[in-house]
Amino acid sequence: xxxxxxxxxxxxxxxxxxxxxxxxxxxxxxxxxxxxxxxxxxxxxxxxxxxxxxxxxxxxxxxxxxxxxxxxxxxxxxxxxxxxxxxxxxxxxxxxxxxxxxxxxxxxxxxxxxx
Amino acid sequence: xxxxxxxxxxxxxxxxxxxxxxxxxxxxxxxxxxxxxxxxxxxxxxxxxxxxxxxxxxxxxxxxxxxxxxxxxxxxxxxxxxxxxxxxxxxxxxxxxxxxxxxxxxxxxxxxxxx
Lengths: 115, 115
Hints:
A: 13 strands
């Protein structure tokens, strides 16, 4: 069965640089979620999209932006990177029917290291 | 607000031992409850879920019962295997409202099973 695809799997950037993370949801899943998991921490919700519109926003820094495209893939853009942005970034997708969300399927994550 | 409190780890057990990982929650509405498992180097996988009070989720020998009176969703397994070694996350999501679908995670419990 198809799973959530994230790219790249690993990314190393320097402070103040920009990074773009990509997420390809499971086919026919119209909702995408982004989470950030710091070292030894629980995943924290960043942002979600439903049918290409932002549906919910969590603790996402203003330096970050995201969008969902017409093919439902999503990109998380991170600018002016800081050391504290080093984390595992997960994307998850779910099908949504009449506003009721189903369980989320997670990708393998992108490990971002800022030096 | 919504939050999940999970038993601190790490938990170390011998093969075939009984496992309990405690999880309690605080929610403003009527959440769905989940257990996710994270194997080394991999993304989060849904282990089991329960969507309303008194529901029991079960999968691969793991069980958890949604207890509204004690706001708990403890994970249990009667006989653990070495292959169960992983990090386990308890999580909740609201079933309605503007944060529909957003997952709130506990801190995670590292389980190590020795042969």
